[in-house]
Amino acid sequence: MEELNVDNILKNGERIEDLGLKNLKIIQNPEYFCFGMDAVLLSWFVSKKTKGAIDIIDLGTGTGIIPLLLYGKTQANSITGIEIQEPLVEMARRSMELNGLSDQIRIIHGDIKKPGDEILPNSYDVVVSNPPYMRAQGGLKNKQDTKTISRHEVLCNIEDILVFSKRMLRDRGRLFLVHRPERLGDIIFLMRSYKIEVKHLQFVYSAITKEANLVLIEGRKSGRPGMKTDPPLIVYDEKGQYTDEIYKIYGMKKPE
Asked: Ranges for the Methyltransferase small domain (predicted)?
């Protein structure tokens, strides 16, 4: 494969970030919503709960971080990302080109509420989403701003994700989410309303003395009732350094 000229693939304000996983890289722009730890933890959670040649779709893929991480961490048969914001779609596609993965990872410009003909019902084993955490509020100044759309339920909410998942997942297919613990009651209620049963939860704590600030969720379409909670995931130890588990998740060596 001919090596790409990085100067030709990057635009003003963009940088390339090494993901530390199988030489994968992603294009980022600080003016847009850059990926954070929640995307990394969600990808890890999916990879430890899934096996084999599965078909995966990531809803609200942004710049394509979750498809890239899942490509590196799973044996997926196919990976698709759908994103409504055209500038992010274009950037994600360039990241796939940068990695030589344009054929392996499809990035679709579309709305999960009207997914179009490219996405077929009952055709995915796994739906993944790192959705906006905050409810849309009337006082938002610019509802078209990329960061606003990424953080607030302006164009997509939990119910939209569940409508999509119920329709597009194969029977017994799984939905994976990362969200804020304070929204968990509503999420569990809505998932059951759409015949997606919560099977596993894992709470994430910034420190052992703090309240949980993230929760990783696995649901199964047409699943039987019965939920388990995985051991808590602690990000920082008492010295303010990453815990051994976080270093392992990031594929980093802990400093001596």
From this structure: 41-179
Domains in the chain and their CATH numbers? 6-250 (3.40.50.150)
Cα four-point dihedral sign 234, 239, 241, 244: negative
Q: Are 103 and 71 in contact (CB under 8 A)?
A: no
Three-state DSSP class for 107? Answer: strand
| Token pair in block for residue 220 | 């199964």
Question: Count of CB atoms within 10 A of residue 9's CB?
Answer: 14
Rounded to an integer, what is the distance from CA 236 to the centroid of its chain? 22
pLDDT in tens, 187-226: 999 999 999 999 999 999 999 999 999 999 999 999 999 9
CB–CB of 231/221 below 8 Å? no
pTM: 0.91
What is residue 198's three-state secondary structure? strand
Contact 196, 175 (CB under 8 A): yes
Cα–Cα dist 105/87, whole Å: 18
